[in-house]
Structures are given as C-alpha cells and as structure tokens.
C-alpha cells in the first residue's frame, strides 16, 4: 500500500508546481556532496539508485518533456515487486494502458516489435512481461537523456558546488 501511495504522490506532482530545475525541500535536506554527485556520472544505474539523483534526473527530464520514460521504468520496477498474481494482472494492464498503448497519455517511444511483444506477454502475466520494453526505454535514457543530464546546468552545479567553509578565522 505504501508503494502504491508513494507512486500516486509522485504522479500528482504537476510540472508547473515548482520552478524548473528546482528540487522540493525534502530532497534538498539530503543534498549530495560533489563527490556523490560525480559518482552519478559513472552510470545511469548509480544515478537512479540515489534518491536525490533520481529527483534531479526527473527534474531534468521534465524540462525536456520526456519524464514518461523514467515514470515507465519506475513503474516496471514497482511491478516486479508485486507478489499477488491478481494485483500483478491489474498493474500490468494499467502500465500497458498508460505507457505502451498507442496514443496513451504517457506513451513511451517503443518500436512496433517491442510493443507487440509486450502486448502478447500480457496474455500470460509474469514478472518479466515488461522486461524487453523496460530495457529498450532504459537504453534510450542511457544513450540520449542521461548524457544530456550530465552536461546540464543542474548536474554541473551539483558537482561544482562549493563546500561550506567550516574553518574559523582566528588571529
């Protein structure tokens, strides 16, 4: 239930609710050090597993109007954690309708073969129904959005942020 509510909470954030490139206050409280931020440059995986990194990447994708790729990838990750077969079936239909069906509200960019393969997988629901589509979208983010994120002002500022001076001046 908590995962579902957290997912809904993320969904209800409107792109115009905060200035572009800004992260909400709860994320700022755990602002990464420049060293942590630099690790995100090693791989997309390292970026996605860090809570602040994920939020920063989402903020960047929002500026490019392509956050549906990340939303789909995260929905697939949540889907894989579902234990109940009936919940899995219901979530699979929802993911397909929201991200994969042609003309869906957050349609991700998949080739017709992958789209058809995923549709066929829904005839026999399993944890791996979306694996191919998820890999394709991950590949798109890795080769396209992620390199642009690493060159973005948002990321560059995180890496180059000045450390607060903790030394006191004494005479």
UniProtKB/TrEMBL annotation:
<keyword id="KW-0832">Ubl conjugation</keyword>
<feature type="domain" description="RGS">
    <location>
        <begin position="43"/>
        <end position="159"/>
    </location>
</feature>
<dbReference type="InterPro" id="IPR024066">
    <property type="entry name" value="RGS_subdom1/3"/>
</dbReference>
<protein>
    <recommendedName>
        <fullName>Regulator of G-protein signaling 3</fullName>
    </recommendedName>
</protein>
<dbReference type="InterPro" id="IPR036305">
    <property type="entry name" value="RGS_sf"/>
</dbReference>
<dbReference type="GO" id="GO:0005886">
    <property type="term" value="C:plasma membrane"/>
</dbReference>
<dbReference type="GO" id="GO:0005737">
    <property type="term" value="C:cytoplasm"/>
</dbReference>
<feature type="region of interest" description="Disordered">
    <location>
        <begin position="1"/>
        <end position="37"/>
    </location>
</feature>
<keyword id="KW-0488">Methylation</keyword>
<dbReference type="GO" id="GO:0005634">
    <property type="term" value="C:nucleus"/>
</dbReference>
<keyword id="KW-0734">Signal transduction inhibitor</keyword>
<dbReference type="GO" id="GO:0009968">
    <property type="term" value="P:negative regulation of signal transduction"/>
</dbReference>
<dbReference type="InterPro" id="IPR034951">
    <property type="entry name" value="RGS_RGS3"/>
</dbReference>
<dbReference type="InterPro" id="IPR016137">
    <property type="entry name" value="RGS"/>
</dbReference>
<feature type="compositionally biased region" description="Basic and acidic residues">
    <location>
        <begin position="22"/>
        <end position="37"/>
    </location>
</feature>
<comment type="function">
    <text>Down-regulates signaling from heterotrimeric G-proteins by increasing the GTPase activity of the alpha subunits, thereby driving them into their inactive GDP-bound form. Down-regulates G-protein-mediated release of inositol phosphates and activation of MAP kinases.</text>
</comment>
<keyword id="KW-0539">Nucleus</keyword>
<dbReference type="Pfam" id="PF00615">
    <property type="entry name" value="RGS"/>
</dbReference>
<keyword id="KW-0597">Phosphoprotein</keyword>
<dbReference type="InterPro" id="IPR044926">
    <property type="entry name" value="RGS_subdomain_2"/>
</dbReference>
């Amino acid at each position: 239930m908590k995962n579902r509510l957290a997912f809904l909470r993320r969904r209800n954030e409107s792109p115009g609710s905060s200035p572009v490139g800004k992260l909400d206050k709860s994320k700022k409280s755990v602002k990464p050090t420049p060293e942590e931020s630099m690790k995100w440059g090693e791989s997309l995986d390292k970026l996605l597993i860090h809570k602040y990194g994920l939020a920063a990447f989402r903020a960047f994708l929002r500026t490019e109007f392509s956050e549906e790729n990340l939303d789909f990838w995260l929905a697939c990750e949540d889907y894989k954690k579902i234990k109940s077969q009936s919940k899995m079936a219901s979530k699979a239909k929802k993911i397909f309708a929201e991200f994969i069906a042609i003309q869906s509200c957050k349609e991700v960019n998949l080739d017709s073969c992958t789209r058809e393969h995923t549709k066929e997988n829904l005839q026999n629901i399993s944890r791996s129904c979306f694996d191919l589509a998820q890999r394709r979208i991950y590949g798109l983010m890795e080769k396209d959005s992620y390199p642009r994120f690493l060159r973005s002002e948002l990321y560059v500022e995180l890496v180059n942020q000045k450390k607060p001076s903790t030394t006191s001046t004494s005479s």
